Amino acid sequence: MKLNDIEHIYFDLDHTLWDFDKNSALAFEQMFSRRKISLKIEDFLEVYVPVNYKYWELYRDNQVSKEDLRIGRLKDSFDLLKMETSARTIEELSIEYIEFLPENNHLLDGSVEILNYLEANYQLHIITNGFEEVQHKKLHNSGISKFFATVTTSEEAGVKKPHSLIFETALNKASALPSKSLMIGDNLVADVKGAQDFGMSTIYFDYYRKKEKIDGRQIQTLNELRDYL
């Protein structure tokens, strides 16, 4: 069913438009090659991906700081792999990762096509919990910053999704009403529940194709947004 009253569309960035998994893997490959770290990227990612996810949940819930996240996800991963790594090396790797990550800019299939399709009839925006200094680079380097009227990060708002203040900040920047705004993202708590609690319409992007039973709109490919918009 078409959403007829929407004027503003808010996207999450990572795992929604920007291919975080592919770009992150490429960043680590470059870092390990540069430092001659003899570790298969597949073995590292098998451990790192769930560790990183855990830290982002803790960061979202204000249980760890940005610094704890940056260092902890690497330290814990190397510990699980039983690789002795000095605190200095982990600190250097955490800095290099933030530098290398936005230099790889693969987008998810259909991202540019759907943004071209939507921009004719809607104002497009970004709301992200990602780090301020990285997210703007991702948008610029991947060539999609031109599509978005506003970009709101959690560091700018002072709170993270699903807190209502980040949605309030984002909508105020665009003079948008919740009833005429739609949030699209891959996280059922941060993106979907957070936006719904603020009075926005939502579409859950089932990025990992888990086919979860949810009470609401969901898509598994970006092209499916045409069914609603």
TrEMBL record:
GO molecular-function term, one example from the UniProt record: 5'-nucleotidase activity
Keywords recorded for this protein, A-Z: Hydrolase
The keyword Hydrolase is assigned to this record: yes
Pfam family membership, one: HAD_2
Name the record gives this protein: Putative hydrolase of the HAD superfamily
Taxonomic path: Bacteria, Pseudomonadati, Bacteroidota, Flavobacteriia, Flavobacteriales
